Amino acid sequence: MALLSRGVDFCAVLLAGWAAYAWRFESVVVHYERYQWALLVGGLIQLWMFPLFGLYRSWRGRRWLAMVAKLVAAYLAWGAAIAVVMFAFQLFDYSRIWLLGWMLLALALSTSARGIAYPLIASLRKHGRNQRKVLLIGDALSCRNAFYALRRDPGQGFDVARVLVLDYGLGRRLKKYQGVVDNYEFGRRITVEEDEVWVCLPLSRGNDAHRIIDALDTVTANIRLMPNLSDLRLINHSTSVIAGQHLIDVCCSPMTGWRRMKKRILDVVLSSLILVAIAPLLLILALGVRVSSKGPIFYRQERVSWNGRPFWMLKFRSMHVDTEQAGVDWGGARNKATTRFGAFLRRTSLDELPQFINVLRGDMSIVGPRPERTIFVERFKHEIPGYMQKHMVKAGITGWAQINGWRGDTDLNKRIEYDLWYIENWSLWLDLRIILLTFFRGFTNPHAY
User: Fold this and answer.
1) Which pLDDT score is estimated for 284?
2) Cα Dmax for the chain
3) 446 pLDDT exceeds 60?
4) What angle, 0 to 180 degrees and rounded to 10, lies between the N-to-C axes of helices 279-292 and 340-348?
5) How many alpha carbons fall within 13 Å on the CB side of residue 363?
6) Pairing status of strand 396-398 against strand 365-367
7) What gap in Å lies between CA 298 and CA 286, rounded to an integer?
8) Hey, what CATH class is 132-231 in?
């Protein structure tokens, strides 16, 4: 399959180059031999570069969108490599329109080929073909979780052939699979006819996992360790190798390296454009605040953002001056003495617009969990499980929770649930989707105050 995928991508690059040439120059022949050499060089660069992105590893257990994301990244890097080669050798007489068309068409062809192959292979696997047989060894709970996960999604290409448990059975729900399930005692030799062996145990039984893996030292099947982490709150989980040490990343921020840079570029570009576009509106709102009541135009409030760092968040002032001198209560903003103009600002969320300045300063992001005041953070981090994990990314003007209706005076536990889902599933496309949906759902809300 890997060899076939390589061949398909190589042919896609060549075919796309010829098609882009025919489209760009139509019937006019322009330096045809030079473009043929460019196609050959581009194909060789593709053969060398694409394996670096893991495009030709097994598709088993991998999601379609994850593969497409890697394919897009590979083609962007490929296009950049071609640009570097042309700049290095001063090859400036190639059509830039042809180069862009070449890259986009090649990406479309490779994506289409996978779009046809992926569901076809998944369908074959759901009908019992092209499956790898799996032997599960471990405690009852962990094996049961793995068993049902694989049975629910046969399109991943794995089928449980046997289960060896270290304790008392798998419960009533697995009685119909008794021919599959057996007990295992340490010291017994394990014979394996399956393609895969998955050792399923909680982290607390690391010694047992070591003994089982030792008993498999004569086995030629793939051996995988599947720790039961179901009782942990996982954020951006994966595995790492640092200084030769193998780590399980249980709860890590997704904002590292290139991902962090991409999000920052999006924030700076969009917030700059938005501030320029809404400058007249900002002046009108500032005038409205000034005329409606005495006091400053902006209201500064200490909030908590990325890594628990405090910052001063900006808003258009919507309350009378000194309203909060009597103290701060959670959910009490609805009852505070807002001005008539301030009530309008809150209902329409227009009081939040100055936070684009916070985005430019780097305090916030356009998309992210909404920030809370320091006093409430100190309280909620002891009351709500996983509350501090929302601070693994920058606070945002809008977020996944807000566009789904969890804003203002709503269930805080549900808001945290949506915030953590956003962090776990973050992508640039998700940010753009949230920004777009904010225009339809985010400006007015019955829970806003």
Assistant:
1) 92
2) 85
3) no
4) 150
5) 18
6) parallel
7) 8
8) alpha beta
